Structures are given as C-alpha cells and as structure tokens.
Amino acid sequence: MIRSRIRRAARRGAMGLAGGLCLGIGIALLTVAGWIALASAAGHGIAALTFGLIYTGTGLILVALAGGRRDPDRDAEPAAPGPPPPPASPDLVQAFFRGLGAGAAARKGFDRGRGARR
C-alpha cells in the first residue's frame, strides 16, 4: 500500500517535471520565432522591448496570483470556546421540584390526621 503511494507520487512528479520541461522548451522556441519575426519587421530594439514587457508582465501576474489570496480560515485566530452547555436540569429547577415534592409529601401527612386542623 505504501509502495503504491510512493510509485504514484513518483510518477506524478516525473510527469510534472517532463511537462514543465516541454513547456519551457516550447516557450523558448516560440520566443525565438517571435523574435525573428518581430526583429525583421520592426527592428531588434522593438523586439527586445516587446518580449521583455511580455515576460515581465506575465511574471508579475503569476507572482500576484501566487501570493494574492489568503485562506481566511488559516489566518483567522482560533475562536474562543463558547459557554459550557447547560446541564440537563439546572440546579434551580431541581430545587423547585424537590421543594414541590417535599410540599406534596408534607400535605399528604397533614391530611392523614397528623396534626390536622378540622
């Protein structure tokens, strides 16, 4: 299982490296072809200025995209823990029902003749 993960990661890395290398060679060849066409039409100075601006603009856009957005969840401070959940039966409610039960028990005893006033 671990070996298959390592193989897949190595394969993805090799494919990415090969793709990047082919992309770099393609960009270099297109740059040369564009240079030749632009230099013959407008001169070497204009060709150098044009390709310099294209690569500088592309580089600035890529740098801005790489560092422009931040993950709000990652940068946010951890939230303070909320209040603890209320107990199933708060103390005041428990005390009320205990008192109610004690009163009912006392009344039953009072009605049976233990000191009943009649």
Automatic annotation (TrEMBL):
Q: Where is this region: Disordered?
A: 70-91
Q: Where are the transmembrane segments?
A: 12-38, 44-65
**Keyword entries, A-Z:** Membrane, Transmembrane, Transmembrane helix
Q: Which domain of life is it from?
A: Bacteria
Compositionally skewed regions (Pro residues) per UniProt: 80-89
* Protein name listed in UniProt: Uncharacterized protein
